[in-house]
Structures are given as C-alpha cells and as structure tokens.
Amino acid sequence: MEESVVILHLSSTTSADVAAELDHLRDKFGSLTLGKVLTLIVVARNNESIEAALDAADAASLSHPCRIIAYLPDTQADVNEASLGAELRVGGEAGVSEIIILRPLGGAGANPTSLLLPLLLPEAPVVVWWSEDAPANPAEHPIGRLANRRITNTIAHTNPVPLLKDLAKNYTPGDTDMSWAGCTLWRGNLAAMLDEPPFEAVESARVQGSLEHASTYLMASWLALRLDAPVTLEDSQGYGLEKITLSRASGDLVLHRKVGETTAEMIRPGRKTQRVRLETRTQENRLTEELQRMVPDISYGHVLEAFGNGIIPGC
C-alpha cells in the first residue's frame, strides 16, 4: 500500500516552532532522521520552480536520504512585514526524505542563517543547491557559509556564461556547478576512445555546442587541460554539447550526438562507427551525482580555474 503524505502548514511561525513540530512528527511516525545522511538546502526563484526543484531533490534522496529544506523568500514584500510561513511534508511524495519549505516574508528573510541553523541535522554534512539564480560567490553567501558543498545551476540561469566567469573568479573548494555533471558521460566516452591503440597524442580538439551553455566551456577547458593541446569552440543550434573532434596523426576521433537523440556516434579511424548511450542528463541525474561526494571536487576546481585563466582563447 502506498504511504500517504502528511502535509502541515504553519503560519506566523518560527524555526523553533518548526523544529518542535518535527519532534512531534518524530514521536508520532517514528524517527524521521534515521538514516538521513545530509541536509540539503534548496534555494529557488518562485513557487513554480520550487516544486520542480523539490521533485529533483526527492528523486536524488532515493540514493542520498536527506532532510530537504526549501528556502523561498518573498523579496517583494515590505521589509517591515516580517513573518515566517512553513510547510512540512512527510511520507508519500517526500520519499525517504522529509521536506521543509520555509517562506520568509519581508524582514524575516534578512538573516537566513538564523532561520536555517535550528533545522539542520546535527553532525551531518550540509549541501546548498541554488536551483536557478545563484550568487557570484557562493562560499561568501550567508547560506553558502553553512554548507560543506555548494551547488549552482548555470543551466537554469538567465546569464549562464557571465555567471560561470564569476564562479571561476570566486571559486572556493566545495563549490560545483551542475553543468559539470552534465559533462560526465561525454568525458567517460572520450576517455575510453583515447584508451585504445594507437596511443597517439592529440594535436588539437574542436568542441561544438551551445555557446550559451556552461557545459560547452567546461568540456573545452577540461580537454585543453588534460590534452595540453589547442581547443577551439564552434557554436551549434542544439542544447549543450553536440560534437567533439580530437585530431591525431592517424585521423580524427569524433563523438557526435545529434540534437534530440539519446545516443551518439563514436567514430574512430579504421573502425566501424559505433553508437553509444549519451542522453542529455536530467536535473535529477546531475543532482544525484553531485550529492555522491561531500569533499571538494578537485577536478572541477582545476577545470574552472583553467577556464577563468583563459585556457580557451577568446573566452
């Protein structure tokens, strides 16, 4: 039998009252914190986007049981109209997690740290995910200071490439962006192609993808860093990455995913063209991957630093 969801709405409340209500639910339904491995704070733009973000977080919680705290301040309210609304969801759609939605109104959102601290799981890592808009310096943001890991999402940002440049300039270990997880399958397939004879040096590389998508720049920077070879960018009409060409003395290695397809052509000189799985990763997939590590992603840090230092000419 499918478990029903318990939803409680609290108005004009405090974080202490929310924590007390969680204790009450724990007494009524059992230990809600049992097996929880982290606290995930989700910062969203509006009510519509918070539900999409919670769907992704809920799916990720199947692999990483957590307490999810959605933080949705009303920035349009009068600063003098300070109050806190909250919603608690347990069971059913909350999956293996418990969901807390905080809606500070006006001045109540002036100090997010004081609202969030009482609700963090004790002695557990904290991850903050800005599902759309993100600060230029996540580690110095009041919510970012609470976290071991800080996840941005340039894919959903209105100005993704300028934001990526800001993130590079202000990088702090523990930062990451979901566009990096969007490169994972591409990087794995390219590494497999290079791990076959002939083991020749790559003389140059070309990355074709949307120049409005951070994954294109991160992939190009990763290649330039790993191959120590010049990399050029070429714009495409698709979403994200489309085609990568690695030029060697014996010919080109090509990985090409046409727009809208979930597989890609793997082309190698003297070999039959092979089709490999290479779907565009969902938000749930990318978030799940990012929650696998609670330590800084050193590879991402090196690639982002290289991008910020201009490893790709003209970027």
Summarize the helices and strands and which ones pair or pack.
Blueprint: E1 6-10, H1 15-29, E2 38-43, H2 47-60, E3 66-71, E4 83-90, E5 98-105, H3 112-116, E6 126-130, E7 149-152, H4 160-169, E8 175-177, H5 178-181, H6 184-194, E9 204-209, H7 214-227, E10 231-235, E11 241-248, E12 251-256, E13 263-267, E14 274-277, H8 283-290, H9 298-308
Parallel strand pairs: 2-3, 2-6, 3-5, 6-7, 7-8, 9-10
Antiparallel strand pairs: 1-4, 4-5, 9-11, 11-12, 12-13, 13-14
Question: Short summary of the structure?
Answer:
The chain has nine helices and 14 strands. By secondary structure, the protein is of the alpha/beta class.
Question: What does this 3D model show about the protein?
Answer:
The protein has 315 residues and is α/β, with parallel strands linked by helices. It folds into 2 domains: 6-177, no CATH class; 184-280. 29% of the residues lie in helices and 25% in strands. An 8-stranded mixed sheet has the order 1-4-5-3-2-6-7-8, with helices on both faces. The radius of gyration is 22 Å and the shape is elongated. It starts with 5 loop residues before the first strand and ends in a 7-residue tail after the last helix. InterPro entries: G6PDH_assembly_OpcA (IPR004555), OpcA_G6PD_C (IPR046802), OpcA_G6PD_N (IPR046801). Residues 57-168 form the Glucose-6-phosphate dehydrogenase assembly protein OpcA N-terminal domain. It comes from Flaviflexus ciconiae. Residues 173-304 form the Glucose-6-phosphate dehydrogenase assembly protein OpcA C-terminal domain. This is Glucose-6-phosphate dehydrogenase.
